[in-house]
Amino acid sequence: IPERYDSIYSVFPDIAVKFILKNQNQYMMLRETIPMTSNLFERLILSADFEKENRNKIFSDYAETYITETVVRCIKSLSLPMTKNIFNSAWNSIDEQKRKEFLLDYYKLLDADELQQRFEELGNDYEQFALTTKNEDFAKYLERIGYITSYSIKEEKEFDMKTRKMKEQKVLKLRIKQVR
Length: 180
Hints:
- It is a single chain.
- The relative contact order is 0.07.
- It is built from 10 helices and 2 strands.
- By secondary structure, it is α+β, with helices and mostly antiparallel strands.
């Protein structure tokens, strides 16, 4: 399979991926003999024809080195296995707006010091984390690991310029622990 793959890839790279997908069992046994690239990694991970077990194995083995922004956007929907090292590689491949959402999806991988580092990279803009059930869980986690001393949820009234009416909004207030 490696020789046939190489000869197909050198002439028709798109067909080479289809060749792997049609020969998944052989590929999985011989995958170390076929060079991985970011393009091949992305196409295998995102292919609906790639078996879930094979996808998870390839993701675990190669994501730290070959992850792409497109794959990062699909990690959660594909239920791919996440580790701290993969999180760090993924973090470095996405922009700030996607980082905020990504952090809320995988914050439990990080300890207080690592969360502090991520917040600093986001500019300590805590207000960007609007209140959701997920964010309340995030606040509970921050409190549990000692990053914050407490949190509360308050109802605040605010004038909505679009509807020209007062509306109530839930606001999550966090008390950040003072570092000495």
